[in-house]
Structure formats: structure tokens, C-alpha cells
Design brief:
alpha/beta, 153 residues, 17% strand, five-stranded mixed beta sheet
């Protein structure tokens, strides 16, 4: 199984506050999640913890979110769920354990849309709390892939 990761942030810098981390296992040959060990999951890190750790947001990214919401009414609800509500946030411990288990049960590569965005921000997120990114343990960082490459398979 492969693992697709997608994050939503409040900045484009590596120090960005992460408002959501989504992950789904999938089969590369079929492109489906049939046979997966875990159901798709979205984790919501605490913004307060991240701001306290010095992570950042930017006006440009807030403006981008404003444009997304204006062009897609459904995005407003998703944005409010990710950003405005602070209750029911996942703890750093839960996020670390959950992503660690996903990595453990993924035999293939880790995919995202642009390996220069999601994985460096995730690495920085974990480093902000003096933790290693689950995607770098045991040299797994060599298996990071850009989903835009999938068109070539």
C-alpha cells in the first residue's frame, strides 16, 4: 500500500501552522483504497500549541483562503471546521502515534502534491516540538513522491 498525505496550512513557509493533515492508503496499480489497513483520516493539530511554538501564518495565505471560500461555498464550512473552531483538536501525541502507525503499515511510497511543500512543513512541525517526522524514520524520506508523477504510471 502507498500513503497519500495532504496538509492545509495558514502559510506557505516551512514554519506554517498546520490546520489539517489528511492521509489515505491506496494501491498504486488500481488507484483505489481497496485492501487498506486504515480508513482515510484527517487530523486537526492545535493551532494554539503551534503558535506557542513559533509557527507562522501569513496574510497572503489568509487572502488565498478568502478567495477559495468566495469561489466555493462548500469550502466555507471546511475552512471553519479547520480554522475557526479550536475545540476537539488532536493532541501532538495522538498525531505522532497515528501517523507513526500509518507509516509502519505502509510498504510503498509516501505521496503528496508537491514534495517541496507537505513533507518539509511536516518535518518542521515535528521539529518544532523536538520530534522526528514519522516520514524520515529509517530513511523512509527516500520514498517521498509527488502525486503529479502518477500520470506517468
Amino acid at each position: 500500500m502507498e500513503l497519500m498525505i495532504d496538509i492545509e496550512t495558514l502559510d506557505t513557509a516551512q514554519s506554517a501552522v498546520i490546520i489539517a493533515i489528511s492521509a489515505v492508503q491506496f494501491s498504486l496499480p488500481t488507484g483505489t483504497s481497496e485492501g487498506r489497513v486504515f480508513d482515510p483520516i484527517t487530523l486537526y493539530p492545535s493551532k494554539e500549541e503551534q503558535f506557542d511554538a513559533g509557527r507562522t501564518s501569513s496574510i497572503a495565505t489568509w487572502e488565498w483562503w478568502k478567495d477559495v471560500i468566495a469561489s466555493n461555498p462548500r469550502a466555507k464550512h471546511e475552512f471553519e471546521n479547520m480554522v475557526l473552531r479550536d475545540e476537539n483538536r488532536d493532541s501532538l501525541e495522538y498525531i505522532t502515534k497515528t501517523l507513526g502507525k500509518l507509516v509502519e503499515y505502509t510498504s510503498g511510497s509516501f505521496w503528496c502534491k508537491g514534495v517541496g511543500f507537505d513533507f518539509p512543513i511536516l518535518k518542521s512541525y515535528f521539529n518544532s516540538f523536538n520530534l522526528d517526522s514519522p516520514f524520515e524514520i529509517d530513511k523512509r524520506y527516500r520514498r517521498l513522491r509527488d502525486c503529479r508523477q502518477l500520470a506517468g504510471f
